[in-house]
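Standup notes
- DV: blocked on the single-chain target, sequence here:
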Amino acid sequence: MPHFILEYTDNIKEDGNIPELLKKVNKVLLSRKDIFPPGGIRSRAIELEDYEIADGEEDDAFVHASLKIGAGRSKADKDAVCEELFDTMKNHFFELYERRYLALSMELNEFSEAGTYKHNNIHQRFKNK
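- DV (later): unblocked, structure below
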């Protein structure tokens, strides 16, 4: 953990540069090695083809992010990371936001370790550094 999952409407695929945003997100998360092990960081995007927004009369678009983390981080740490990630999103989409109707949102999902199952040898690579 953490996992950053981005959903975006397909009408911004051309101008949204989603792969670049995912790199920026990972950079933010990697900068917080004090609270997130690098081997657990995952960022991904899901392009949405089927959606309805508002009254459907404009070519509206949205981007929604979900940050999933395990329990145990302080409120201050969670707030700081979420604010930095959301600022990263707003900065990334600044020009697009100025040109078209676009809704940006993000949520934090924190859950206990109970009921989660993991098998990951990527962590070992970072322990050996």
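- Follow-up: The longest strand covers residues 61-70.
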